[in-house]
Design a protein that fits this description.
It is built from 7 helices and 5 strands. By secondary structure, the protein is α/β, with parallel strands linked by helices. It has 2 domains: 97 residues, Rossmann fold, CATH 3.40.50.1390; 40 residues. Strands 2-1-3-4-5 form a 5-stranded mixed sheet, with helices on both faces. Helix 5 crosses helix 7 and helix 6 crosses helix 7. The longest helix is centred in the middle third of the chain and has 34 residues.
């Protein structure tokens, strides 16, 4: 089993020494690093290289869990992807090692917590949207066309015979958006002329 290490610090002023020493003590064959790269950044070239280097039967080792993922959900996704590729994972500080039954149990508990976190966020979002709607707040993107613009466009199309493409350009919308808006306007008006 090859052991591939990964270390990261968020700023250029921080040092990798502590992490590199711990990874060295774990007999890592290769160590990839990111210096001055925040975990919130999607572009982490050292991590990308480490993840592309590990193969089935290898183990990815980090000093601490927060070195690997931007959030618990992100961390679970990375470790799940490794598992699907038959790559083990080990975090030195948290003593998580997916090559052991206890490590797998800890990881599954973390996965359940991440799923719980996702469902809580979803419930809060839905409750917030419902409360906003009950207060009369508009939810979502504002309409591309006002009701007045839809009426103007309908009249220009039906009476003046202006093409849909020219009208769409006039109102700076896609022709499909214009047609959809005009159809909805006609349905609301009880007309079926389009």
């Amino acid at each position: 089993m090859r052991k591939i290490g990964y270390a990261r610090v968020s700023t250029n002023e921080q040092h990798l020494d502590l992490q590199l020493k711990a990874l060295g003590a774990s007999d890592c064959d290769l160590v990839f690093t990111d210096q001055g790269v925040s975990s919130s950044t999607f572009d982490r070239p050292g991590l990308a290289e480490a993840l592309s280097t590990v193969q089935s039967g290898d183990m990815l080792i980090v000093w601490r869990l927060d070195r690997l993922g931007r959030s618990l959900i992100d961390l679970i996704q990375v470790i799940n992807d490794l598992g699907e590729r038959e790559v083990e994972f080990r975090s030195l500080n948290e003593a998580i090692d997916t090559s052991t039954s206890g490590g797998r149990l800890t990881f599954h508990i973390m996965g359940a917590m991440a799923e719980f976190e996702r469902s809580i966020i979803s419930e809060r979002t839905k409750a917030g949207m419902s409360a906003a709607r009950s207060r009369g707040s508009f939810i979502g993107r504002p309409p591309a066309l006002t009701p007045e613009q839809i009426l103007e466009a309908r009249d220009a199309f039906m009476i003046e015979k202006v093409s849909i493409e020219d009208l769409a350009e006039r109102y700076k919308v896609h022709p499909r958006t214009l047609v959809r808006g005009m159809k909805q306007g006609l349905l609301l008006a009880g007309d079926s002329g389009l």
